[in-house]
Amino acid sequence: MYDDIPFDKETNCLLLEDAGLTGLYLMDLAALKELAKLIGREEDLPLLDERMSCVRCGL
């Protein structure tokens, strides 16, 4: 699946956006947000919200 995708040696990243992996990352962020609420880390919520927003816009 990824055989013909160019690789950027400067950033060490494939030049591809994988919708499946991006969706999993969004789910991770949502879980982290719930955990932050449970343990009283409300100061982390704006950062998680910002990351979720940026990823959703790119999806």
Unreliable stretches (pLDDT < 50, length at least 5) are none
Beta-strand percent range:
5-15%
Number of helices: 2
Rounded mean pLDDT score: 92
**Proportion of helical residues:** 55-70%
User: What is the approximate shape?
Assistant: elongated
What characterizes the major β-sheet?
2 strands, antiparallel
Radius of gyration: 15 Å
* Structural class by sheet pairing and helices: mainly alpha
The number of strands is 2
How many separate structural domains? Answer: 1
Instruction: Give the strand order, joined by hyphens, for the main sheet.
Output: 1-2
Describe the structure.
The protein is mainly alpha-helical and 59 residues long. It has one domain (16-58). The protein is 58% helix and 7% strand. It contains two helices and two strands. It has helices at 19-38, 45-58, and strands spanning 7-8, 13-14. It has a two-stranded antiparallel sheet with strand order 1-2. A hairpin with a 4-residue loop joins strand 1 and strand 2 (13-14). Helix 1 packs antiparallel against helix 2 (45-58). The mean pLDDT is 92.
Index terms:
single chain; mainly alpha; 2 helices; two-stranded antiparallel sheet; 7% strand; 59 residues
Please give a quick description of this structure.
The chain is built from 2 helices and 2 strands; from the N terminus they run E-E-H-H. With 59 residues, the protein is mostly helical.
